[in-house]
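Team,

Forwarding the record for the chain on the shared tracking sheet. I've put the sequence and predicted structure together so nobody has to dig through attachments.
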Amino acid sequence: MKILLIRLRLIGDVVFTTPIPRALKRAFPDAHLTYLVEPQAAAVVAGNPHLDDVIVAPRPSGIARVVGDLRLARRLRRAHYDLVIDMHGGPRSAWLAWLSRAPRRIGYEIKGRSWMYTRVVGRPRALRPRHSVVNQWDLLEAIDGWPAGGPDPAQDAVEMAGDPAAAARIAQRLRALGVTAQHELVVVHVSAGNPFRRWPEPAFTALVAGLAAESPQRRIVLSSGPSDRDAAAQIATRARQVLGPAADRVLDFGEFDLAELRALIERSRLFIGGDTGPLHISATTATPIVGIYGPTEPARSAPWRDRRVPTESVEILGLPCRPCDQRVCEPGDFRCLTTLKPEDVLSAATRAMSARP
């Protein structure tokens, strides 16, 4: 049986799909699995041991996208897939699923697109305290003969294959900065995909300075998306000003790609970040995690892995406006993040690093 999995766009969303190939291979050991992904998140599935093929679909604009998608559709049709599972549900993924002409096409029940599938699965629009991995598991349960039972984070954890070349590059860069095995690395991701998930810069400054001040052996690496490079640099500069003579504990590490980010996190003692792609990349390692949650909830998007691995979630409870659809801040002051205190994140960091798997 030939199966095509489709999940486009964001890094964290692709990470959340990685239990699916493992489960399919467990149920259908002889199945040939292909994954269709866009370039931004391709590294997440590039080395997945349960996939037989990965198709990277560029995302050009204008007429180039139409031409490219028609060419891609012909390729999918020639592959003669028996089953297509659209784990995205967007217009492009639904269109490509339909154009594949696979006899069985499973996707979410979405107005205007359900006709493109042969079997649809309900996906309520209301925000529910139900994890994204569990929501995607519903698609597997639409397969005839699928075994009963939901996903287990221990058995069906998210995964991303390590890249030895990326790990070697990270090791070389750490040596160049004087970081040895005796140092305790902490990665702090200061970016967010949108302003609704962005913890204020002064809070990150206090967090980074507090982490660095706790131990002379600790070294802090800041990571960010391309649009937040300046913000990350300002946070590092201000934290160094607070630290004074200990300013060298905040490293100037430069940029790194997804494979290098995973290698750096795997080498680290702790990862701290908001509900973004790097948080979920970190969940593919055994490194302790502190997640910072604003408009989203851990019940829906906490790291999906063995619960014995130390994982802390920091959030403001009891806000009637939370969770939200991240289009308009109803109170207008982003209080789900602006009232979240650096000392609470520091306490969570201490708990995560003190815990033993």
